[in-house]
Amino acid sequence: MAALLDAASLAPSVGNAQPWRFVRLRTPTLREAVAAHVDAENARAAAGYAEQESRDAYRALKLHGLREAPELLAVFCDERPAAGHRLGVATMPEMLRYSCVTAIHTLWLAARARGIGLGWVSILDPDAVTVLLDAPSDWTLIALLCLGYPEAPSDIPELERRGWQSREPLVDRLFER
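Request: output the structure for the sequence above.
Response:
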């Protein structure tokens, strides 16, 4: 984890603000509280599918490894970092959050290079997780991540392997003007 966090901390950021704040979830009771919260949000999301077939397909997905992953990491954005002196933020304040995403991406690449999997849990209430983790009110939750060695390494994303959604071709995503 130290090597992965060191790599993530080298990510580029707007104005060199380095707004990412990493919170490792180490306490078993806290980890379980976060997992229970995500399970409740997951059940609520499943209920949102009108058709039984879609609900069943959704429920069959493994959408988090919060109880199995050896490492859980929350990534927050400090919306008012002292570093960077607000350079580049006056016109595009969202760049602070994008900078945090570059740190997450850098972390993911460093993990993949070591054969470690990273899952990004997004079925949650960010405000509730912020409270559970006792994060400062001027931090914004960007990601809740599960890290660990996968049961079976694969280059195909889990949701694609389970038939939820295949990757779509680049030609459908590339536009030229």
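DSSP finds six helices and four strands in the chain.
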